[in-house]
Amino acid sequence: MIKDIQRARQLHIADIIGRSAKRRGDKIALIDGETKISFKDLDRLVSKITAHLYAAGLRKGDKLVLMSHNCWQFPAILHAAARLGVIGVPINFMLNANEVTYLLEHSQPKMIVAEDELCHVIDEATRKLTFLQPQKVVLNLNEIHVTSVWKNFEYFLKSILVDVPEIELNTHDPIRMMYTSGTESLPKGVLLNSESLILQYTTCIIEGEMSANDKEIHAFPLYHCAQLDAFLNVDLFLGATSYIFRRFDPELVLRTIAQEKITKLFCPPTAWIALLNNDVISQVDLGSLAKAYYGASTMPRTVIEQLRQLLPHIRFWQFYGQTEMAPVASVLSPDDHEHFIESVGKPALHVQTEIMDENGTILPLGHIGEIVHRSCHLTLGYDQNIEKTNESFSNGWFHSGDLGYFNEHGYLYVVDRIKDMVKTGGENVSTREVEEVIYTLEGVKEVAVIGLPHDHWIEEVVAVIIKHEHAELDENKILQHCRTRLSSYKAPKKVFFRTELPKNASGKILKRELKNYYKNMQNAIA
After folding, report:
1. What is the pLDDT of residues 415-471, one digit of tens each?
2. Which domains does the chain have, with CATH numbers?
3. Is 460 exposed, middle or buried (0-12, 13-18, 19+ CB in 10 A)?
């Protein structure tokens, strides 16, 4: 009886599609190119996939790895897995075979579902596995021939006679594993349960003023927590309509907003910069776009100001967080952009945030320390990594790895990632602060500031810049601009120009790759 009461009282992520189908019926849930799927039909498809997963032997607690560009099948597979209590593990489609081998050895899935153009990566990766070979299912999205070991996902959309029993689901059990981006170290498997996800969805809905009337483009990778769980799954939960884009194309995004009367859009800062610099932005009617969101990395003040000037009818939100927070931790509301544009807002609805020093002491307003959280959004910990889990949850708080402070009005300011701080001559330099100064110089398109080894200063501040075409910028102009606006120890000592910055698929600049590249260049010269 206690189990019956518990099941009746809980809302599990496995229930979302079925509940939305009852509430929204024939309303369109997903649009992927020419494919349009109603909530009712999505529920039927998820049920069929669930039956096939069960028939293939997947059971509660097993893992299913999903490697694909965005497609309607992506959320359908994850929701089908959730109905069985199977842990969905989306992974980065840009990884090479060695990187995939690492993730597969770590997660040890019972099944891998992969897009056809990525099957060769999986095949190479699985040759090196030390555990029982997982079943392989191919998403035939590009009509690329694969070997016979791959079962076609189209078969999973057919009805089969299999008795799927009632699965005893618990909102506290892990249901998703998201790998950290690995921008600083090897990826870690972040375990999330239904409670974390559902409560994070409600935070997004309330803080972001989301509704069933939204029409939203999803152009960034669904293997990333921001697009998947701050936006797409929220839309499915509410009953909003989602447009699935395979990848981010600035012109296509702008034209689709105009043609389809899109009301809502999330982009990381690098993508908002791309939209701002695209000629189409001044050629199409973006009047329908009422709500815009950014996050995943820092938005330069000059960029958000330009966006708000160019598109004054659009209300902007900043969502700050990380994978371990499922992912939202704080929110900067549209009204707060007026006076607190450089902050990341205030702690979100279900989040308590403090600033802590190295000894575990909570610091007063205005003092810089590590940003720490307590929240029902939080991860259960890192899969098979008790040492890192204990370290991250020391003193009864989750340690974000970000440095920040609260101002006298209670707004949170992020100074930098602890690992991105440059320590030069015994002084700490925030790379974010230097980047903000460089962005105020006309002609700068993108910038990343890093620290490189130096014989005397231990590290020196270095700026890596992409300039606009025809911009008259050189190293001296950049250095002079910084020296007049920053203390001498904060100003870059060198400037490198590039045509592009390395980024992961979610738009984060990979500073680790930049550091390694220029370190190797230093060594070669030496």
Report:
1. 888 888 898 877 778 888 899 899 999 999 999 999 999 887 888 999 999 999 889
2. 2-170 (3.40.50.980), 191-418 (3.40.50.12780), 422-525 (3.30.300.30)
3. buried
